[in-house]
Design brief:
The protein has two helices and four strands; from the N terminus they run E-E-H-H-E-E. A four-stranded antiparallel β-sheet has the order 1-2-3-4, with helices on one face. The chain is of the alpha+beta class and 123 residues long. Helix 1 (57-64) packs antiparallel against helix 2.
């Protein structure tokens, strides 16, 4: 079994054009997005190990925010999650697996978390 490193960025609130109902399709909806990425990692991280041996957490944040195409409407939040996964796979060959959890905040009535979790593996 290979070692791996998990990087995580959780609970980002991101406005995204998504939804299938007419009341959802004209304005961005607030989504709570969490990302976990499994990376290949070196055998050891010494005290002076440079950032290049790991991954910048801001890359995960970028995939869920500025890397989402402006003005594009995602019918399903699964499409949002897929776009985030593909962005991370394309930008770093060390990414082995991406887990994206998305909660649709606008449809919560009593604080419940309604959404999806998508797990993609490098193919």
């Amino acid at each position: 079994m290979e070692d791996s490193l998990q990087l995580e960025v959780h609970d980002m609130e991101v406005p995204v054009l998504t939804g299938i109902y007419s009341e959802e399709t004209h304005l961005p909806q607030p989504l709570r997005i969490s990302i976990t990425v499994d990376l290949r990692c070196p055998a050891r991280f010494d005290p002076d190990t440079p950032l290049a041996a790991s991954k910048n957490y801001l890359d995960l944040k970028h995939a869920a925010t500025t890397a989402l195409p402006a003005g594009v409407h995602f019918t399903l939040i699964e499409g949002v999650a897929d776009h985030i996964c593909e962005t991370l796979f394309l930008t770093d060959e060390r990414v082995l697996r991406v887990t994206v959890k998305i909660v649709k905040l606008a449809i919560s009535e009593a604080g419940e978390a309604i959404g999806i979790t998508l797990v993609r593996h490098r193919r």
